[in-house]
């Protein structure tokens, strides 16, 4: 998926039993991630994914400051992280991942990204700004192993309980 204004709305089929193995992102969140990373350029942009724990369903993204202020690494503002966690919990949601940009490389976790991956249950979304249009990919990182997961962009945010 390379065009943030018209991402693919298709993806792999849902496995038997209805369990989703991947990330579902509302179009509005997709566009917010891409726009935030473009605005942060030449530094890396970053933010948090808020969603339903254990499902891969993202309800919204929260762009944050990159307190590392770097084109090579990112650090999510810890105060913004705490505020986001508290707000998500109040809604019955959770921080389910993080996104950040790679300004000059592909959308694949660097050795630093893998080393610093804080939670094996999180989704790690990379936005590459190497090409004219951002490329967005998502990964799971567990014990140093990087596994790409499918990303499906949905038209709307699902309402709680649906």
Automatic annotation (TrEMBL):
InterPro entries: JAB_dom_prok (IPR028090), JAMM/MPN+_dom (IPR000555), MPN (IPR037518), VirAsm_ModProt (IPR051929)
Keyword Protease: yes
Keyword Hydrolase attributed: yes
Residue span(s) of domain MPN: 23-157
Keyword line: Hydrolase, Metal-binding, Metalloprotease, Protease, Zinc
Superkingdom to which the source organism belongs: Bacteria
Gene3D superfamilies: Cytidine Deaminase, domain 2 (3.40.140.10)
SMART domains attached to this UniProt entry: JAB_MPN
Pfam families named in the record: Prok-JAB
Protein name: Mov34/MPN/PAD-1 family protein
Species annotation: Aciditerrimonas ferrireducens
